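If you are new to this repository, start here. Below is one unmodified record pulled from the training split, so you can see the exact layout before writing a loader.
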Amino acid sequence: MNNISPMAFVHPEAKIGENVTIEAFAYVDRNTEIGDGCIIGPHVSIMSGARIGKNNRFYDGCIIAATPQDFRWKGEESYVEIGDNNTIREHVIINRSIVRNGKTKIGNDSFIMAQSHVAHDSEIGSWVVIGNSVKIAGSCKIGNFSILSSCSLVHEKIDVGEWVLVKGGCRVNNNVPPFTIMAHNPIAYFGVNAFIMRKGKFPEEHIDDIAKCYRHIYQSNTSPFNAMVRCKADVQESPERDAIIKFVEDHNFKIAALTLDTYND
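And here is the target side for that same chain:
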């Protein structure tokens, strides 16, 4: 049984699941879908194009599927797709895609803190934590289990790998490979995200191999290309080693704090 405040507006064409709570002054537009068990707080706006899974909670003043803040968008119908069990705190804004039938995506079990912004066509993985006032520009990807600390800024078309920690206030202006900690401005490699990976039950020998990979990449005074050669030769094969190599090579050796042009050897 749903609990919908008489002071909320729910468009008659909206598709509402079971056991959904919609509190006073919330607005639910046409062309929206809200899954079972969701809680829509006061003054939340669920706009046209929202596709929301089960057991999500939206706190006061969120705007979900807001129209894109991009001059390239010409009114095309597009979507925001949110999985299950997410917490979206106060005044978060998530924009829908600028592409016809495109999607901005949020995975499952993620926590997006107050006043953060996820722009058009970005993809947030599962078990992600986004701190207060984080701004994620358009067409970005944030990998599973990653943490963006408060006031981080992620530039357009940036990929952040899995199990990454970006410290507060960083300007992320290039791709961030998996399992790392990034800090400072300009952004710099700060180490391996070992504390969080241990909580994720990573074996110690795998964490050691990850650290060895990043010594080659960031601390050997060589090019990213040569660092990949060294990783393949020197580090025992594992899913983590292969994920690092694949990320760096797939992004044409353009990663945070280091690019192909950094060194001349």
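Two things worth knowing about this chain: DSSP finds four helices and 28 strands in the chain. Residues 101 and 229 are 41 Å apart (CA to CA).
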